[in-house]
Amino acid sequence: MTGTEASHAELARVVREHAGRLAASLVHLIGDFGAAEDLVQDAVLTALRRWPVEGIPERPDAWLFTVARRRGLDALRRESNYRDKLAQLRRLTPQEPSADRLRLVFTCCHPALPRTAQIALTLRVVCGLTTAQIARAFLVPESTVAQRITRAKRKITDAGIPYRIPAPEELSARLSEVLTVIYLLLNEGYLSTAEQAQSRDLVDDAEWLASLLCQLMPTEPEAAGLLALIRLHRARAAGRFDSAGGLVLLADQDRSLWDRKAITDATRLLARAAAHRRPGPYQLQAAIVACHAEAERWENTDWEQIVLLYDMLLHLAPSPVTRLHRAIAVRHAVGPHAAMADLEALAAPLDRHHLYHAARAELLRDLGRADDAHAADRRALELTDNPAEQAVLERRLSWA
Question: 302-400 sits in which CATH class?
């Protein structure tokens, strides 16, 4: 790898992991989403020019922050009230208090914005996901996501939406969108749609934001349910990849590597949430993962219970992706014929979703339709950029 390639790769990593924190700190100071994001982008462009020549800084995230802060100083000097804000900016460091990002999440999730725009803007500005990653999460074109983000930033600026955590009586109106953002952040970190297998930093961010939300709303069972879901996934992380970084499917994972104490603690958190008797989608998803996590062996998995939980989930939050996962559970609980009947009904809405074609390939193999299974795996491979998933699919194709 050349020096330029190495610096570009490192810059991409730093932007992916730190852009959201940097933007949150800058928004806190200048109160303008567009200007804050411009400062981040200017710093990235400067790094693209200078790092290949000067070398990668010892602390690249701090370097980006310093460049962005200096640009912010220049902008503030042109404002009439720059003296007070200048002192604030000089005191600002990359370790701004953690509540800043939660304030930014709630600002992005203001009810004056359309729901889809709230979520897209938060994922882009706060969490640092790319427009392409967000588009894949929503199963919509990139151009649609870009338009939503642009309009949302303009609306926040024009309407003077305040940068703050809402008053207690306002929290419930924004809770659904905030939970969705944290959940999508978990999904992107747990199994990335980008050219990497996973991003532990994004999962860390998701857990941290969910923890803050639980502290802010201690009697909200869905916040606790989402935190339990994140911790259950993290408890099994050590078994998900082999020593070479390859994805290990659930049936083949070494369950002795799972963190049993963390699983127990997460299931207790879920039980406390369930005691409120207000079931919700995140509590149900956590219960499904708990069924897998508590099974000592793959053969002991309670598939009938998992199907029942998916039925409850579909009642509360119907979606094609949830129906897909239910069909996968039906395969193990009932058999491939019943699962295939469910899956075929999802052909139109999930045609560009790689997991749909991968699951269909498994069922086709069960039914003895090897050629059709090969074609389905080939289609799944075309639709994923995740290297770990690509390796699994390529391995299947090589067996055909």
Answer: mainly alpha
